[in-house]
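This follows on from our talk about sequence and fold. Can you supply me with one protein entry, sequence and fold together? Could you add the entry underneath, on a fresh line?
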Amino acid sequence: MAWLQARWYARRLSPALWPLAPLSLLFALLAALRRLAYRRGWLASQALPVPVIVVGNLTVGGAGKTPLVLWLAQALAGRGWRPGIVSRGYGGSQAEPQPVTAAATPEQVGDEPVLLAARSGLPVWVGRDRVAAGRALLQACPEVNLLLCDDGLQHYRLRRDVEVAIFDGRGAGNGCLLPLGPLREPLGRVRQVQALVFNGAPDHRVLRAAPSLPDYGMTLEPGSFYRLGQPQQRCTAAELAGRRLHAVAGIGDPGRFFRTLEQLGLAFVPHPFPDHHAYSADELAFPAGEVILMTEKDAVKCARLNLGEAWVLPVEACLPPELIEVLLEILNGRKAP
C-alpha cells in the first residue's frame, strides 16, 4: 500500500500505474451512476430534523478531518449551537449505531470517534449507516440541534445542509480516481461543496476546479507532550531533546507528524504505519531507556498496551473565523458570500 500511495501522490501519473487504468474507468462509471441515482431519486437520501454539516475529503486516507471537526464543534458551540458528532467508526467492530462512551474502545467504535468524544466532550455516535446513527444520537440527546458528520462526503444517503471538503499538503495527488490515483470522486465534485480547507499548501488544481469557492488555510499547532496513560504528566520538546526517540504515526500522512517533530527541534527514528493501524506491543518494543512519541490518534489505540516510556503530542487546529461566518450564513438561510 505504501508503494501505491507514493505513486498516487506524485504530481504526475506514474507509468507503473497504467495497468490500473481500466479499473479506474470502471470505478468512475460506478461512482457516476451512484451519484446520478441519488440525484434522480432512484436512491433516497434522508433528512434529519436538525442541520447537518459534513466534513470529508475526496482522497482516501486522513487529511485532518478530526481536528477540523473538533475546531468546528468548539466554534459552533461558542456561537450558541449544541452540536453532536456522528461517524462511521472506521476500524471498529460495531455495525449498528452506538454511543461512544468513556468505556468504549477503538476496537469497538474506531480510533477517531474515541478521540472526538474525549476531546470535544460532546455526544458522539458511530454507525455504518450515518442516518441511523444521527437519529439514535438525537433520540438519546434531544438538546442537540446540529450534527457534525466526521467523513461521509460520499455517504449520500444522509442529506446535508453544508459540505466542507479538506485536503492536506498532498492535495489531489495525481488527480486520478481509484485505484489509479487517490480520488474517491472526480475533482469537479468540489464545486458542490460550500467551503474548502487546506491543511497545508493549497493544491492549485483543486482551486482551479472551483475558482469561486471560498477556501481557508488550516494549521495544526502542537501543544505540550503528555505521558501515555498519565495525561497530567507533561513535558516540553526541550526536555526530550538529546534522548533516543522513536516517532510512531499511523495516520493518513505520517510525514506530517514527523515534520512537526522536526520543527520542534527533535531528532528521532521515524516509524510510519498505515492509517488506523492496530498496534501490538511487539511492534513498539524498543530498547529500554528509549522513548516513543506518538499522535493522539495513535495514543487511543496504545493506551492498553504495556509500553515503555511514551509521550503523546496533541495538536489544535487553527482556522480563520470567516469559515464559521460562512457556515452560519448558510445554516441561517442567508446567502453565503
